[in-house]
Structure formats: C-alpha cells, structure tokens
C-alpha cells in the first residue's frame, strides 16, 4: 500500500502541469491563419482568405468577380490577388494548417481513464443475483508524465504548419506572377508576327502582280509566297503557345465558366531605367527565407522528440490501476457487503529490448535534420546569388537588344528595301533581311520577358515560395536556344 501511494503522488504532478495548458489557441476555426495572412501580406502586399463555409465562399467569389469587372485588361497585381483568394490548392494547404491545429489541441487534452467493472457469483440462490463486484480505473502513467513535452512538440509542429502555409501562399503568388508574364509575352510575340504577316502579305500580292507583267521571275515570286506561308505557320504556333500560357494563368487563378473570358495586355511593360541594387541579398535571404525557418523548427521538433525518446528509453508501457473489490456475504440470515481497496502497477521489464535501437534511430533523425538545415542554408545563399545574377544579366541583355540589335536590324531592312526598289538588291536578299528583322524583334521580346521573370524570382529567392535557381537555369537555357535557333 505504501508503494501505491507513492506512485499516485507521482502521477498527480503531470496532471497539474497539463491542466495549466489551454487549448483555446488551437481550437479557434482559423487557428494560426492570422499569422500566415500577416506574414504573406507584408511580403506580397496582397490579401489572402481561408474559406471554411458557404458564406465565405460566396464572399470570395463576389470579390473575384468584382476584380475581374473592374479591370478591362488584367494586370499582374490583380491576377496575383485573385489567385490568393480563389486558388483551391491554396485552400487545401490552409486545411492542412487546420489539421495541425487540431493535433495540437488534442495534445493539450488529458487521456481518458479506462473504467472496468466485473461481477462474479452470478445466479447464487443464497445471495441473489451476484456475490462479488470488482471495479478498476486505469490510466497511462507514462503518458501523463510526458504530457508537457508532448504539448511542446505539437506546438512546434503547429508553428511549422503555419510557415508551410505561408510558403505555399508565396509560391502561388510567385507562380501566378510568372504565368502572367509568360502569357503577356506570348501574346506580344503573336502581335509581332501578325505585323510581319501583314507586311509579307502585301509583298506577296505585289510579287504576284509583278509576275503578271513579267517584271519578276517565277522563282522570285515563289520565294515571296513561301515566306508568307512559313510566317503563317509560325504565327499559328505562337498563337497556340499564347493560349496555353493564358490557360496556365487561368488555372492558377482558379477561374472557370464565364470568368475565363478575361483580357490581358498585348505587351509587357517597358524595361526600367535601371536595376535595383541588392548587394546584401544573401543576408536578406538567410534572415527572411520562410522555408529555412521551417527547417529550423524541424530540427527543434526532432530535438524535443529525441529528449522524449531518451526519457522513455527503458519504460515503454507504464500503467497505474486503482480500484475496489466489494463482496456480499450472508451471515445469520443477513446480507452484508465488504469493500476492499486495491492498487496495481503494470510495466514492461526491459530484459531484451533495452531501447538502444530507438535511441540510435532518434540520434540519426536529429543528425538528418541538422544536415538538412545546413544544406538548406547553403542552397538559400546560392539561390539568392543566382536570382540576383539572372536579374542583372537579363536586364543588360534585354537592354542590348532594345538599344542595339533591333535598331540595327531595322536600319538594314530599310536600306535593303531602298536598294530593292532601285533594282540593286534581289528578292532573296530582301527576304533574308526581313526574316532577320523579325527574328531580332522576337528575341528582343523574349529578352524582355526573361528580365521580368528574373525580377519576379527575386522575392521567392529572399522570402521563399519558388525555385529561383531552377528558374534562372531555365532562363539561361531559353536564351541559348533562342540565340542558336533564331527565334520563331
């Protein structure tokens, strides 16, 4: 009996500690979302919502329709705002945040005790229905002793879920911004090809009339006609690419039905006069990258879990049982009850499994998390440098095409047309100069697109939410293909 009283005293302490922890913070319908909204709005200057009922869904839909109606031509900032309100994948990420809040809420609750009641001597004629009643209340003592640490781990996971939701929000914003840039650039390519098509059609008609008068050979006429036919094919391909790019933007904004009939600009904004200097972009990224903060919390949670594993290394299942036994007897024709208190402690003796395997697994888990954090820090610095290098270099490339290549090609085409009209240059040379002018114009549009994509990748490099390194590499590959392939 003395031993049982000591165990009961030990079990009482965790109950008091656990009762001081409240689950109110985790039980709210939008638990943790205010942190996500505040963090992302400071970065994107946009509002995001968590839709959890029909009324909120209707309000979000009305807000999206108002934004679409307000803008005859959808600009990039409006597109990002619509995506943050209406993207269904983002709403699924917020549901994951709710799951984590529910897990943390559950961790604050005490385990329900197990109550058991037994009967014996049923149907004894002398004593009536039964003779002995046994009852017991069982609770897991080990779970009570580690309750505080369980709550701390659940809270760390909850904070991790908040940051993951913020990263997902930034990713949707960055993806939408890039999709808008790609779609507008694609339609700008279509516009350039259509203007070239109009000029080529006029030249083809002129060649046909000159052929009728005998002033142009059949071979020269064929060159004009095939140029028009090839240009029509290139224009059709560019129009298809533009439609597909716009569909990607539509998906990210979560639009369907009549809402997909929105319009976007026909050309990207002009290049800025200068680039923004970001000499300390590595330090900014290390300080602000949310995915790096997630990795730090993962290491923290693993460390707490390691401590928990160490605490429960030898005792894996410890239960305390308190109860009573009541027995009914008949003496001198009178029935009487005799009740006796009882206690029982049950645990596994570590004869064979001493917990060394669990300890080793916990140690390896901690080292894994530590190395992943170190790798993340290295990658963050590299991605920040790559993003800024792509930003600076693409600006120089786009400015070079705008200021040097396109003006020179225009001059060559003008001079070639003058000599052609003076019967000095033949038709083949004029067509070659016209093709080169079209290719240079398309390369200039693509260079401008690459700059704005690089500019859009700066924020993900500093705050998270996008693979800036991959984007920079893809831009370099695109530029290489464009320079070698000659554009459309």
Characterise this structure.
This protein has helices spanning 2-19, 24-27, 33-44, 54-70, 76-86, 88-107, 141-145, 147-213, 218-253, 281-288, 290-311, 356-421, 427-456, 458-463, 468-485; strands spanning 114-120, 132-140, 318-331, 334-347. 70% of the residues lie in helices and 9% in strands. It has a four-stranded antiparallel sheet with strand order 1-2-3-4. Strand 3 and strand 4 (334-347) form a beta hairpin. The chain is of the alpha+beta class. It starts with a helix and ends with a helix.
Element layout with pairings:
Blueprint: H1 2-19, H2 24-27, H3 33-44, H4 54-70, H5 76-86, H6 88-107, E1 114-120, E2 132-140, H7 141-145, H8 147-213, H9 218-253, H10 281-288, H11 290-311, E3 318-331, E4 334-347, H12 356-421, H13 427-456, H14 458-463, H15 468-485
Helix pairs in contact: 3-8, 4-5, 5-8, 6-8, 8-9, 8-11, 8-13, 10-12, 11-12, 12-13, 12-15, 13-15
